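Request from the bench team (R.T.):
"We need a structural guess for the complex before ordering more 2-acetamido-2-deoxy-beta-D-glucopyranose. Sequence and SMILES attached. Just send the tokens back."

Command: build protein-2-acetamido-2-deoxy-beta-D-glucopyranose structure.
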Amino acid sequence: MRSLTLTALLSLFAPAAFASFTGDTSLSTVKAAFDNAGLPAALDINFNPTVLLEVTFPGPVYVHAGVQLTTTQTFPPPSFGIRILPPPLIAPPYVVIAVDPDAPVGVAEVRHFVGSDFTPGVPDVNLVEPLRNSTPACSNWVNPQPPAGDPAHRYTFLLYKQSPDFDKQTVLQCNSTALPIGFNVSSFAAATGLGDPIGGTFMLVAASS
Ligand SMILES: *[C@@H]1O[C@H](CO)[C@@H](O)[C@H](O)[C@H]1NC(C)=O
Ligand SMILES: *[C@@H]1O[C@H](CO)[C@@H](O)[C@H](O)[C@H]1NC(C)=O
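Reply to R.T.: structure attached below.
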């Protein structure tokens, strides 16, 4: 019990020093990382995050904006959360979408995840509220499989405030057996009333050598 409390305190008072044990801890750092990576232009999005989205792979392996991870680390489906600091001002439920803009023209964007009805639970020791949903994902996790020789792809996770009729959307056929390619997150978000993303993070993954 004492060590859990200590971890919580350390992550509260020294987020930078313990960054490797959590995801992103600063909205301005996340925004700068997106801008430096050219992601708003690549994805045709306005990215001014107000919520810190936490993406964690089993291990745990924490994603923070621009982290380099391996195909092995990112093979299993990630879990999601939101940090309680700064307080998320935009009410749930939320939609999470993951895309890869770096596949070849005609294939990009590759859709890696679309899930809805996420609501936050009780904060953990890292001051992150786990995001849970009880409805199946519309588009299940597709693990990164960048081709050998490609520079690392920018696998990008975006958090949206869910639009009232999102679960009735017909723009994307849920559970489709079609390949998850030729997706366009900005036009999908516009067509389904999601608006601009309210949070996000990304990871760089290259083929394992
Ligand atoms: C996807 O298919 C699974 C298995 O058939 C089903 O349980 C789930 O409800 C489906 N999800 C959606 C969003 O239709
Ligand atoms: C996605 O759609 C937007 C607007 O409809 C367009 O400007 C952009 O080029 C599209 N992106 C891709 C990768 O096709």
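Two things stood out. The chain has one domain: 2-205. Residues 44, 108-109, 184, 186-187 surround 2-acetamido-2-deoxy-beta-D-glucopyranose (ligand 2) (CB under 6 Å).
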